[in-house]
Amino acid sequence: MKFFIDTANLEQIKEAQDLGVLDGVTTNPSLMAKEGISGDQKVTDHYKAICAIVDGDVSAEVISTDFENIIKEGEALAKLDPKIVVKVPMIKDGIKAIKYFSSKGIRTNCTLIFSAGQALLAAKAGATYVSPFLGRLDDIGQDGLQLIEDIRLIFDNYGYETEILAASIRGPLHIINCAKLGADVMTGPLSSILGLLKHPLTDNGLATFLADHKKAAEANA
Ligand code: E4P
């Protein structure tokens, strides 16, 4: 399973990269705004800064919602760095744009996927990734994990190469369950990735090992 971090915060991206398990980054306009990034030049510089840190794919989302401008924006983003994957919303013009980008060899991430039908359509258009937002489905009382399972079944039935990028991850258990269901990638906050480290028995076990080692060293001194 590939691990992406879902943030535009450079410090957190560095921390995840330093851990040695990072495969990429996803951003969105809200995450960019949270870091105070706006305006063409600042946005461009920020994507370049992310690409300089990360050894992997970097999803950069278009703001346009009409075909012509999605293409214009997406082509400009793709030119910034070979790591850039153009993130396109699941709308009619978005699907047309994904088809176009795929014919030009530009990789895409179809975002805001909330149904299996949307994922199927994006895969047919040639999306590199589809991003089902499981946390947001859970938030409204629907079953986000069921959506991951449904998309996995459909993609496997037809051999679609589009990767399932489980998004809107809320915690370590989401990551584990997505891995069990065969999601290709997960994107989540640093806290969810670091949450995988934790188990009280590990902490207790390590404390005992170190205490026993110290006792033995003192006895032999
Ligand atoms: C995916 O690429 C999105 O950026 C993200 O996962 C949305 O998650 P949220 O529901 O935590 O905002």
Order of helices and strands: EHEHHEHEHEHEHHEHEHH
| Uncertain stretches | none
Shape estimate? globular
Named once each, the bound ligands are:
erythose-4-phosphate
CA-based gyration radius: 20 Å
Pathway: Carbohydrate degradation; pentose phosphate pathway; D-glyceraldehyde 3-phosphate and beta-D-fructose 6-phosphate from D-ribose 5-phosphate and D-xylulose 5-phosphate (non-oxidative stage): step 2/3
GO cellular component, one term: cytoplasm
Keywords: Cytoplasm, Pentose shunt, Schiff base, Transferase
Subcellular location: Cytoplasm
Explain this structure to me?
- Helix 4 packs across helix 5, helix 5 packs parallel to helix 6 and helix 6 packs parallel to helix 8.
- It is built from eleven helices and eight strands.
- Strands 1-2-3-4-5-6-7-8 form an eight-stranded parallel beta barrel, surrounded by seven helices.
- The chain is globular and about 75 Å long.
- Helices cover 56% and strands 17% of the residues.
- The mean pLDDT is 98.
- The longest helix has 20 residues.
- It has one domain: TIM Barrel (Alpha-Beta Barrel), CATH 3.20.20.
- Strand 1, helix 1 and strand 2 form a beta-alpha-beta unit.
- By secondary structure, it is α/β, with parallel strands linked by helices.
- Erythose-4-phosphate binds next to helix 7.
- Transaldolase is important for the balance of metabolites in the pentose-phosphate pathway.
- It comes from Pedobacter antarcticus 4BY.
- Its EC number is 2.2.1.2.
- It is found in: Cytoplasm.
- Belongs to the transaldolase family. Type 3B subfamily.
